[in-house]
Structure formats: C-alpha cells, structure tokens
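Incident review: delayed structure delivery

Summary: a single-chain prediction request sat in the queue longer than the usual turnaround. Root cause was a stuck worker, restarted by the on-call engineer. No data loss occurred. The affected request and its eventual output are reproduced below so the record is complete for anyone auditing the incident later.

Affected input:
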Amino acid sequence: MDEERPDLVITAGRVFCADTGLDQPGGVAFKDGLITASGPDVSGPATEVLDYPDSTILPGLVDLHAHPAPMSWRWGVDPDTMMLRRGSTTVLSQGDAGAQTWSQYKDTIIETSEARILMALSPAVLGEYEKRNVFMNLEELDVEACISVIEKDDEYIWGLASNLSRFACGDNDPREVMRRVLVIAERTGKPILYGTRRDASDWPLSEQFESLRPSDVVTYCFIDPEETLDSGGKVVDAFWKARERGILFDLGLGKGTSDLGAAEAAIADGFLPDTISSDIHNTHLDWTPPHDLPMTISRIMAAGLTEKDAFTMSTLRPAEVLGMNGKIGTLAAGAYADVSVLRWGQKPVSLADTPDGVHIGPALESVVTVRAGQVFQP
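Output delivered after worker restart:
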C-alpha cells in the first residue's frame, strides 16, 4: 500500500546505534518525520532511496556545546550551514543569549533554523551579544530576569551556562557569580553547563566541583594538563570524586579549550568524557580543515578514544543529558527522523589545534544529514 511506503530509505555499509545495539550493514526507513525501521533488512522500496556503501549511518549527531547565533553576535555561527549540513541535527547553545536577548535569539535562530536548537541560558542578561567579557558587570547577573525567561520558555531552555574563567569574569569574584547561578538553577530545577576557572589559585578546582550538583556538566573538561593531571600524568582526584557524585564531563574541544595531550593521558588513565562537543564559534571559520563535530570526534579518537565510544558520546549520551533519549540519539522506530551519514576521508590532516606532527590522520566527513525526514547535503 502506498500509504505504508516509506518516504525515504537510506542504506549504508554500516549502521551504528548505541541505543539499539546496531552495528552492521543495513538501512534506516523514514516516514512522516519519524524513523519507522532500522537494521540489516531495511532496503526499500521507498519514495526515495539513497545508498552510501562506503559510509556509516548514525543517529543525528548531538552537539552539547556550540554557538549557533546571529553572525553579528560575539561567537555566533549559522547553525544550518556550519552544524546541520555537517552532521549535527541537535545543538545546545552555550550561553549565547541572556534574558534581554532571548526573544531576539528565539525569533532569529530557534524558530528559523532547520537544526534543532536548545539553550543553556546565560545568567548575564545580554549573554554573548556583545564582544566583551560576559560576567564583567555583576549587575547584569539578574536572577529574577533569568528565572522569568526560563519559566516562560522552558521547552527551549535546557539549563544555564556558567563559564567562570578569568576571561569571562574579569576582576569579579567567581564565587559570587556561581552563587547567583546556583540560585537560578535551584529555583528552576535546571542543570548547569560549567566552564572551570583555570589557574585556580583563588578558587581550587576541588571547591569548584563541590559547588556543582549531580547532572551538572563540566565542559572543556581537558582544557589544561596542569588542571587535569597530577605530576605523574594521572587524572587528579577532584575529577574522580566529582564523577562519583554524578557530575558529568563534556569535551568542548574548540579553539584553545581542550588539550589533546591532556585528553590522551586522561583516556589512558580510564577517565573518558561523557559527551563530545565542538564548541564551534566564529573564530573557527577560517580553520583548515574545517572545524565541526565530525572533526571533533576524529580528534578525540586520535587521542585514544574508541570509535564505538566516540559515536555513543556524540549521539546517545548527549541525548540522555538533554532528557531527549528515545526521541533523538537513537535509530529506534518512533524516534525523530534525524540521522547523520559519515565517512572517513582519505587524506591525512592535522588533528591538533596547531600542527604538532603527532596527531595526524584521517578525519570523519559529513556525507548527508537528515533532519525531520528532510535531506541536507554538506
């Protein structure tokens, strides 16, 4: 019957889904914006059939830390061009908007983008609207304004963004910034996407982690070897203790925000990130090769992460963190029709922030992305 025929079937040399356990050749079928079937026996017929024998079908990639925002904003990049067409179907903004810029952000980014955009709202009322330190003015950390926006648009706002680096806070006391963030988080029941304070002589890392709650997420988790590792190259106790308390760790591997050497040592020590994210923003736009989530996955694999773990940490795990497991991050029937088709490039490239002669190898490339059943080419 035509009404039962899938709108689209995509087949590939490999289909991987950590949620359903798929890892073999096969296909995925879509109809009316949902996945209807996936597995080795899915091959058509359908209204449209696409075949990629040299590629891997994954659930749509989920980027837990990026900067989808108007290009005129401090870090903003176009989410459809730089993220969706490069494999990321769901993206969490790390604090691009605050209470006073939220309406503009919602109108121009969330409601117009083909990619699914969620927000970790900035406690600062302007967010990253202007090119200045986000927490440089404590009077802009308006607790009531932030809570009001979250209560009004809860469905779009996953949590709060709190980067307490000196770069973000300037001369302000990071403890006071965090105190206000925690008030908002407790009153709204929202988690925090947290950037640590590097060179933490004025606030030890162990004390920073103690202020976090289970299900809060530390991003840029391998930002500094001196922060992550002890003198013997092992992960410091503060990280292990935080994980025991239910704190999660996100890669956030952007420009200068994660160190592949620290990541390599941590992975060798058994401390893996929970999620992989790109932290893509506008200073990445001139990078060669281009920076995106598939490239980020390639980079962390070059530091020792297995492909299976890397795929899981960029699909199922961030979907769980966002509270959307069963809807995204899976190829199960009934999930949203979001998939990423990736393949390994043939040309070796530099996988470090700067050429180091060590982290050189192939990189994953986006072949095609499906979002809500619609096909997008790179």
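Verification: The chain has a mean pLDDT of 95.
Action items: add queue-age alerting; document worker restart procedure.
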